[in-house]
């Protein structure tokens, strides 16, 4: 386990585990933490030993969103519009959303504001039974940032997104599952084990093909069907020429399980 700033990270079995580690601040995102997480994502993206990413929090909260103490200090010195939190957070969300390898949010407690937005940037969201979700913006007389207004309508539909954002309701794990905000819930004590099982399945899979699929899904919303079919053809050629593609064909012919390497 390596410790960097307010983050804990370890790599095991092809999975990189990142734990937000500011439990006394409910893992709130101050600028140093945001920048450290961004740099860590760059490092893990380039590491061939990493085939899947799991993001979770220490203590009783996943992430409380923006660090209000840092926010208040910036306002007190007249630097609220220039101290750089929004720019740093937006760069982080863009980096996490565009991470080429599969990403899992293991949501161990309350996810508020930008903390909820971190989970929305991940491919899979697993919630502990005690997890809670709150947008947190309009209660502060503020509009959404860090991607909530983009992700939520796509995940849960426009009306449910407006309920969560306008009314600033606190949603439990069951409500989050029903609306599609998360894909699975489990007992608190089972969260890391369940996340680990999913991470193992993904890490042993054809991660090159996963990356192509992820790009197709994200870019497909901006294309016509004809354009998407052409993009699928190009991606399919890349997958077919990959080492994993050759291994999949050999394994099928030899009637055995394939051994993928992510290339």
TrEMBL record:
The keyword NADP does not apply. Gene3D superfamilies: 2-enoyl-CoA Hydratase, Chain A, domain 1 (3.90.226.10), Lyase 2-enoyl-coa Hydratase, Chain A, domain 2 (1.10.12.10). The keyword Lyase applies. GO terms for molecular function: lyase activity. Pfam families: ECH_1 (PF00378). Belongs to the enoyl-CoA hydratase/isomerase family. This is Enoyl-CoA hydratase. It comes from Pseudomonas taeanensis MS-3. The lineage of its organism: Bacteria, Pseudomonadati, Pseudomonadota, Gammaproteobacteria, Pseudomonadales.
